[in-house]
Amino acid sequence: MKGIPMQTGILRVLRAIAASWWRHKELRRTGQSAQARQLERETVLRDLGYLRQAATLPNAHVICGKGGTFIHLGWTFALIERFPLAALVVARGTTFIDIQPVTDVIAFASLPRVTRDGPVDPEPFGPVRSVSLTTYIDMVKELGARIVNNPRPSRPT
Q1: pTM above 0.85?
Q2: Interior CA angle at 136 toward 139 and 157, to 5°?
Q3: Coil, strand or helix: which one is 74?
Q4: Which of 20, 32, 76, 98 holds its CA 20 to 30 A away from the CA of 61?
């Protein structure tokens, strides 16, 4: 993991999360411990990949709504079945957007996508429709979303 320090505590949390999955517990209960360990290793490696990408991609963010919690990594979305992973990503500084307070679902669904790290569309409501993370944050805040770890430097009042 070049350039991204990964503390032992994070690995412990990821391992504990993986071991707590109902499927892995069931495999252990039925005597299939080797398969449970293999699945846990795969889960930890996948989750480490999500943490790495969230730390390195400039427009990565976590979004939480009634449909679940997702890490947006550019054009891909990583569904997080376990909220502690989202908490780790946010604790490491990734932007968190809580859309649960948003009531205008049509307006939210009409918002443009966040660009991964490429160019921003000059006309955000055209066919491709991609905007920077900060522009997206402004748009969702107008709809009532809550933001944690805003990437903008805080302005003195």
Answers
A1: no
A2: 70
A3: coil
A4: 20
- Residues forming beta bridges with residue 146, ordered by sequence position: 98
Q: Tell me the CA end-to-end span of the chain in Å, nearest whole number.
A: 39
- Residue 72 phi/psi, 5-degree rounding, is -90, 115
pLDDT tens string, the chain, 157 residues long: the values are 444 455 778 888 888 888 888 888 899 899 999 999 999 999 889 888 888 888 888 888 988 888 788 888 876 666 666 677 888 888 888 899 999 999 998 998 888 888 766 556 556 555 557 788 888 999 999 999 999 988 876 655 4
Complete DSSP assignment for 82-134: SHHHHHHHHHTT-EEEE-TT---HHHHHTSPEEPSSSPPPSSTTSSS-EE-HH
Rounded distance between C-alpha atoms, residue 99 and residue 25, angstroms: 32
| Residue pair 132/74 in contact by the 8 Å Cβ criterion | no
